[in-house]
Amino acid sequence: MKVFIQNGHLVDPRQGIDGICDIYIEGGRIQKVRKKKNPAVRSARLPGYRVIDAAGMYVLPGLIDLHVHLREPGYEYKETIRTGTEAAARGGFTAVCCMPNTRPVNDNASVTEFILSRARNEGTCTVLPIGAISKGQKGEELAEFTLMHEAGCVAFSDDGRPVMDSLLMRRALEYSRVHDLPIISHCEDLALAGGGVMNEGLLSVTLGLRGIPAQAEEIMVSRDISLAELTGGRLHIAHVSTAGSVAAVRAAKKRGLAAVTAETCPHYFSITEEAVREYDANAKVNPPLRRKTDVEAIREGLLDGTIDVIATDHAPHHRDEKEGEFDLAPSGISGLETAVGLAMKLVANGMLSMTTLVEKMAVNPARIVGSGGGTVAPGTDADLVIIDPRREYRVDAEKFASKGRNTPFGGWVLPAVPVATIWKGKVYSWE
Ligand code: DOR
User: Fold this and answer.
1) What class has domain 2-59+380-429?
2) Which of 26, 43, 95 is nearest to 380 (CA)?
3) Which of 216, 350, 387, 397 could bond to 192 as cystine, CB 3.0-4.6 Å?
4) Distance of CA 313 from the midpoint of ligand 1 (Å)
């Protein structure tokens, strides 16, 4: 199908474009991008094209989420590849990287192939699997990096669990060099975390809940940076939640460690531990929500380039699991369908520019996993998102495409919403 997007405000830092453009799409690829001084008054009539008038809207390269749990195989009651990729398309994403903590764990080529075949048949965005670092994510023995890489994995991670054994992490970083793929580290010192369920501090004491100190994350961030220095391997720090982690990554980058990158998630720059005050398990997440000073440090880290990526850590869980006791509820937030709105809140408050948003949610993720995308340059896959900054969006989890309704943002009014996502030239819109 041929598609013509006219009058939209294209923000494409890779091409140095930040202005009104017309975009022609044919055969699933970008055919032509034409800059304009002013939007046309009337919609064009282009025979053979589906015309989308994006006047007053942003047109961005399709967003790429480095950190998503699609739950299939094994936990289809929480999410499937079909519902997870639908949620992604709704959220403005044209590609998602899926974590290996499925059942069975994605620690071998056959699981990777299964995920990719499901995605081919049922997916509404590109699925880029992440293979496990260790067999069964047990932290004992390295998984088969080469076979998983050949099957299509774009990175390795034991996310959901840390690699506690420093020697194993060293080997993972060494082997990852062979394929030039990143090791994505879930930084958590399990012993120090001590089975905690929220941030450690006055509030955890008040609520009578076991706390997880910031240092449980920061010690591992520092360890992994040291190991990246030792090995020359590529390290990507997942879900940064504390000021100390931001400082450690900043210092590493200052020392010239170009192979270290980091991500944070919308919940860490939007809300604090106060969200769990009423024992709301929808705000239970790992690492936990922290203090105001951490939120500020994370925003600062996004601004000064310390944090390269905004990823969702989309972690859908079943309502029954989240409605039980806070202590026992699984950690995670269903994040795909609120990420753009929460990031646009930073834009609306003048804390982030649209260019920086595109860098954190499309350009840098593409560079880190080497996936292609992150631009609407002619000849590339036609992956785009159209965002209407004039339309507020009230979060209603019951309307999520994701099976996971677990969000602490229910009822929030967010300043903008994706109105269409175009994946390989196919238009998904909710008008
Ligand atoms: O909150 C989280 N949920 N953090 C993780 O690291 C794993 C994830 C999950 O798989 O539910």
Assistant:
1) mainly beta
2) 26
3) 216
4) 7
